TrEMBL record:
Family: Belongs to the membrane fusion protein (MFP) (TC 8.A.1) family.
UniProt-recorded name of the protein: Efflux RND transporter periplasmic adaptor subunit
Keywords: Signal
Residue ranges constituting the CusB-like beta-barrel domain according to the UniProt record: 205-264
Signal sequence bounds: 1-18
CzcB-like barrel-sandwich hybrid domain mapped to chain residues: 63-198
Classification via NCBIfam families: RND_mfp (TIGR01730)
InterPro entries, sorted: Beta-barrel_RND_2, BSH_CzcB-like, RND_pump_MFP
Length: 372
């Protein structure tokens, strides 16, 4: 009796569980929130490159001879005038060389006077036929050789004088000492840089361009410059010079951006920013780098099906990556909505709830409330 009752209760339980739908089939998957943005026209954004105000002409100043620096007469930041002495070499050896050259010149000059007197006497004797022509020719040759030695000694004396004068390094033009590369007591070679002079006159901005952006720049390209000390006051500028080779350490290309300093009033060493339009074509879009994924070497983004609120993988053709954005040449339209973050957690056909970056619900049929 008890056993039959237990079988009856078990059968009723099995029938009841078979008739009750499972909780997993009854509950539908809830749409997850997804940060959505629209592609932006690339020409509406600017790339910003930090730079420093530099002089257009920055000659490296060096001695023209070897020697030991005896005195350094200026410091970094000092203003110098054209012809002002900047440093001096030890002149002891130079003065000895000058004395030796002067002595050689005096000796050669005395020999030339003696050879000239002898030539004049032999010329008179030859007229009286007291000497032979061969003797006269020998005296003439000695006189010509003495003149050549005198010219050689004069040239050596001039060189020695120049060498002594080269012991003083002078400013070739007015400006500011921007850098010092040697100190008093140091032995330097001829041509070794001692100072860098920021010459008076034109000013420009020095910026460094990454390898992926160098093809977007050309000499004469119009840009915009803004000083950190004058925010909100852009000035027109243009690319004056592009380095043909990358820096071996930073792998960046140096560029010089010229502007009208009379209007800007920039000082050496000031910080500046150079603004560059990312693109000039109106059909080129850009999206955040976080929105782009890749599958099998093919870049794609997640585009929202606005009717069904589902996501679909869409292949895109990309340009060179920037610091925050990447241009898209094909695959998107201006009215598309794409997922801007968390793309690695998505799957094809997934239902989502569009939100902006402030986690506020958005209606894909309307303009996004805030993308920043």
């Amino acid at each position: 009796m008890y056993r039959s009752l237990m079988h009856t209760v078990l059968l009723i339980s099995l029938l009841a569980s078979a008739c009750t739908p499972s909780e997993s089939t009854d509950r539908e998957e809830k749409p997850r929130p997804a940060v959505m943005v629209r592609p932006e026209v690339a020409s509406t954004r600017l790339d910003v490159y930090p730079g420093e105000i530099r002089a257009r002409f920055e000659p490296a100043l060096a001695f023209r001879i070897d020697g030991k620096i005896h005195r350094r007469l200026v410091n970094v930041g000092d203003r110098v005038e054209q012809g002002q002495a900047l440093a001096e070499l030890d002149t002891d050896d130079l003065l000895l060389q000058l004395d030796s050259a002067r002595a050689n010149f005096n000796s050669a000059e005395a020999d030339q006077r003696l050879a000239g007197s002898e030539l004049e006497r032999h010329r008179k004797l030859l007229a009286r036929q007291l000497v032979s022509h061969s003797q006269f020719d020998a005296v003439t040759t000695r006189f010509e050789a003495s003149e050549a030695r005198l010219q050689q000694a004069r040239a050596q004396l001039d060189v020695a004088r120049n060498q002594a004068a080269y012991a003083v390094l002078k400013a070739p033009e007015s400006g500011v000492i921007a850098r010092r590369m040697a100190e008093a007591g140091q032995v330097v070679a001829a041509g070794q840089g001692i100072f860098t002079l920021a010459a008076d006159g034109e000013r420009e901005v020095r910026i460094d361009l990454p390898e992926q952006s160098i093809n977007r720049f050309r000499v004469g390209q119009p840009l915009t410059v803004e000083l950190w000390s004058q925010p909100g006051k852009p000035f027109p500028a243009q690319v004056r010079e592009l380095s043909p080779a990358a820096d071996p350490i930073s792998r960046t290309f140096e560029a010089r951006v010229a502007f009208d300093n009379q209007a800007v009033g920039a000082e050496l060493g000031q910080s500046a920013r150079v603004f560059v339009p990312q693109a000039t074509a109106t059909d080129v879009f850009q999206v955040p780098m976080s929105a782009v994924s890749a599958d099998g070497g093919q870049a794609f983004v997640w585009v929202l099906d606005q009717e069904h609120q589902t996501l679909h993988k869409t292949a895109v053709a990309l340009g060179p990556f920037g610091q925050e954005f990447v241009p898209v040449f094909a695959g998107l339209h201006a009215d598309d909505w794409i997922v801007a973050a968390g793309t690695h957690l998505l799957r094809e056909g997934q239902r989502v709830r569009p939100v902006d970056r402030m986690n506020r619900p958005i209606n894909p049929d309307r303009t996004l409330v805030s993308q920043d």
